[in-house]
Amino acid sequence: MTTETPRWFTSSYSENGGACVEVATNLAAPHGIVPVRDSKHDTTGPVLTVPAAAFTAFVAGVRAGELGAL
């Protein structure tokens, strides 16, 4: 990843006290990546690094209802 520190964010739609997926969008513009992690189990665990364009397309698809029922 990078030497810049990710600022982790949990969606305000999270209904379970914040124990869900977190993203660090502060790295999208300067580095073109969006780190994603599972905060339910281990916030020091592995981080999936997604290209910013792919993450943007994913969020747009979710908002448009293109991914079906989850």
UniProtKB/TrEMBL annotation:
<dbReference type="Pfam" id="PF04149">
    <property type="entry name" value="DUF397"/>
</dbReference>
<dbReference type="InterPro" id="IPR007278">
    <property type="entry name" value="DUF397"/>
</dbReference>
<feature type="domain" description="DUF397">
    <location>
        <begin position="7"/>
        <end position="63"/>
    </location>
</feature>
<protein>
    <recommendedName>
        <fullName>DUF397 domain-containing protein</fullName>
    </recommendedName>
</protein>
